[in-house]
Amino acid sequence: MKDIDSILHALPEAISHTFGKGKPADYIPALAEVPRDRFGMAISTVDGQDFIVGDAKESFSIQSISKLFSLSQAMHYAGEKVFERVGVEPSGNPFNSLSQLEFENGIPRNPFINAGALVISDILLEHLKSPKQDFLDHIRRLSGNLDIQYDERVFRSEYDHGQRNAALAYYLKSFNNINHSIAQVLDFYFYQCSLNMSCLDLARASRFLANGGIDPVNDKKVVTPKRARRINSLMMTCGTYDEAGEFAFRVGLPCKSGVGGGIVAVIPGKMSICVWSPELGAKGNSLPGMHALKAFIEKAGISVF
Ligand code: GLN
């Protein structure tokens, strides 16, 4: 695996032309203030090795990458029933879009847009005794990092600027696709978005998706092999919102992004990857992050295709 290390260390230079071309999320001050020149990448292989470059150990706001962990936890508890309340089609629309809900009877297009994640949060509220703590424990266990915390300031700001998510939750409830109170659902959803993790934490936490649903470090089953395949499929088709086609075309890996600038990618049977740069492109995905993934798979010559 010496190659991985040298490819990784050559990446910041190889994608330097993309720095300065994107824009950090600015809908809340806590994200707008993150220094835009950060770049990190981490790789965790299914045989337990880690490779890192740049700011891979610096924590950032995971935002919508949390949707990966909430979906896998919901599938663990509710199995296929999850897909009676959330669809599996790419939306082709921005992550916070309301419009499709009206024509699809309040069934969000997929679990990775905000509407879908709000329903997933509602499902988890049914199954978890202490939802926030249980979710945090799940993430800490997967990443092997007990110091992971949520960011109170980001959490508060999500609330202050959460009108769109509140509208989605109310709208979903009008179709009876939310069972708990709007306050409970939003509180839990914003909590998930506000977790701080590093690239290394996220690469380790998503390693089970590269290993048939089993965490290779402790041999624990996180989800069944079939569910791991399904989560990977959904990442490929829906994980980067209305840029999923572009990601499939350029990167060709299952990916899940967040507006904090992180992107998790999976190479089934081999490794999980997390790249981070706060500079987002027009669709809310990290621009240097996308280019780094593309450069990595081209140089390493590995792909799912
Ligand atoms: N907290 C953000 C929101 O709910 C997460 C969106 C994202 O990362 N794409 O709008």
UniProtKB/TrEMBL annotation:
<feature type="binding site">
    <location>
        <position position="241"/>
    </location>
    <ligand>
        <name>substrate</name>
    </ligand>
</feature>
<comment type="similarity">
    <text>Belongs to the glutaminase family.</text>
</comment>
<dbReference type="GO" id="GO:0004359">
    <property type="term" value="F:glutaminase activity"/>
</dbReference>
<feature type="binding site">
    <location>
        <position position="114"/>
    </location>
    <ligand>
        <name>substrate</name>
    </ligand>
</feature>
<dbReference type="InterPro" id="IPR012338">
    <property type="entry name" value="Beta-lactam/transpept-like"/>
</dbReference>
<feature type="binding site">
    <location>
        <position position="64"/>
    </location>
    <ligand>
        <name>substrate</name>
    </ligand>
</feature>
<feature type="binding site">
    <location>
        <position position="158"/>
    </location>
    <ligand>
        <name>substrate</name>
    </ligand>
</feature>
<feature type="binding site">
    <location>
        <position position="189"/>
    </location>
    <ligand>
        <name>substrate</name>
    </ligand>
</feature>
<dbReference type="Pfam" id="PF04960">
    <property type="entry name" value="Glutaminase"/>
</dbReference>
<protein>
    <recommendedName>
        <fullName>Glutaminase</fullName>
        <ecNumber>3.5.1.2</ecNumber>
    </recommendedName>
</protein>
<feature type="binding site">
    <location>
        <position position="165"/>
    </location>
    <ligand>
        <name>substrate</name>
    </ligand>
</feature>
<comment type="subunit">
    <text>Homotetramer.</text>
</comment>
<feature type="binding site">
    <location>
        <position position="259"/>
    </location>
    <ligand>
        <name>substrate</name>
    </ligand>
</feature>
<keyword id="KW-0007">Acetylation</keyword>
<keyword id="KW-0378">Hydrolase</keyword>
<dbReference type="InterPro" id="IPR015868">
    <property type="entry name" value="Glutaminase"/>
</dbReference>
